[in-house]
Amino acid sequence: MKKLSRTIMICLCMTMLALLFCGCEKGAGQSTEPKLLLGFSQIGAESAWRIGNTRDIEEQAEKYQISLMLENANQMQENQIAAIRRFIAYRVDVIAFSPIVEEGWDNVLLEAKNAGIPVILVDRVISTEKEGLTTCVIGADFYREGVMAAEYLIRKADSLGLEHVNIVEITGTANSTPMLQRQAGFMDTIADDGRMTVLESIDGDFLKSRGAECMRSLLASYGEEIDVVYSHNDEMTLGALPEIENAGLKPGKDMIIISIDAGQKAIDVLKEGRINCVVECTPKLGKELMETALKLKSGESVDPVIHPTETFFSDEMDPSQIAPRGY
Ligand code: GZL
């Protein structure tokens, strides 16, 4: 009898253990096992845009059950290169990164290629002579953003009947894709408009503090000659506005202010009438990144370029209709 009750106890314990392990399954057939390991090197936290981009990538990784190793490079290319080397050593399934500048990636990306690890470019691109270092780029059409900014300015100059338009440009990080493309798109679009004169372009590095410094310098050089400030991102714009006001001028009225990113802070300032136009650059690239990484892991082909749809917001429309931006 004793032997029988012992056998029953052992069976019961085995059943309990089996149920316990099954209990960690997420319902029938769904496993909590990560579908892949993704290494992501992020530039830093220089703007609301960047912080929103990081948050979206983390949220989407969780949603797609992807194990994410995200490293913040604090605005230094050497930190991104070191992070990519760690991902290679760790044998991640896919590497993704937002290159702070376009040059200087060949060696580390060749190491990733030789390790058989596919690389996705997010947000920005690289410049290289070598083939096959990356699989695709997921990010905005920055040239188009520059075009939208200039097209707004041409409409604004028409509506105000301006005969001369003096422009100062506060650019993003030198040699970064958004800086090069936003400048090219804008300058190409105003090139044939005889009213437009660019007084100076100055590097604000996408930083609020630099935006303020640049604006102080431009005001010292040109003062009330300035008709338009074209700023490559909201952070620099928000740094510049108080400097314009400290000079006794009204941004949005005495000067046309054009910005890019369209984060909530800039939209709120647009509603106050202190910015005239904000071109959207969405940081929400996480969904496309996860879907692309899963395709690469399963050997599927991917589109070489994935552009999100983007628009602009301006004083030509009712800003009260602009939905919350989420970054
Ligand atoms: C654009 C992104 C830029 C943002 C800035 O996709 O690379 O970098 O416009 C950010 O706010 O610093």
Give a structural overview.
This protein has 327 residues and is α/β, with parallel strands linked by helices. The protein has two domains: 133 residues, Response regulator (Rossmann fold), CATH 3.40.50.2300; 140 residues, Response regulator (Rossmann fold). The chain is 43% helix and 17% strand. The protein has ten helices and twelve strands. It has a six-stranded parallel beta sheet with strand order 2-1-3-4-5-11, with helices on both faces. A six-stranded mixed beta sheet has the order 7-6-8-9-10-12, sandwiched between helices. The longest helix has 22 residues. About 4% of the residues have low confidence. Bound molecules: beta-D-galactofuranose. Beta-D-galactofuranose binds next to helix 2 and strand 9.
β-strand amount: 15-25%
The description of the largest β-sheet is: 6 strands, parallel
What's the helical proportion of residues? Answer: 40-55%
Order of helices and strands: HEHEHEHEEHEHEHEHEHEHEE
Low-confidence stretches: 16-27
CA-based gyration radius: 25 Å
The hetero compounds bound to this protein are: beta-D-galactofuranose
The CATH superfamily of the largest domain appears as: Response regulator
How many H/I helices? 10
CATH class of the largest domain: Alpha Beta
CATH architecture of the largest domain: 3-Layer(aba) Sandwich
What distance lies between the first and last C-alpha atoms, to the nearest angstrom? 70 Å
Count of extended strands: 12
CATH topology of the largest domain: Rossmann fold
The pLDDT mean sits at 92
Q: Compute the number of structural domains.
A: 2
Oligomeric category:
single chain
- Shape field: elongated
For the largest beta sheet, what order do the strands appear in spatially? 2-1-3-4-5-11
Helix/strand/pairing class, anyone? alpha/beta
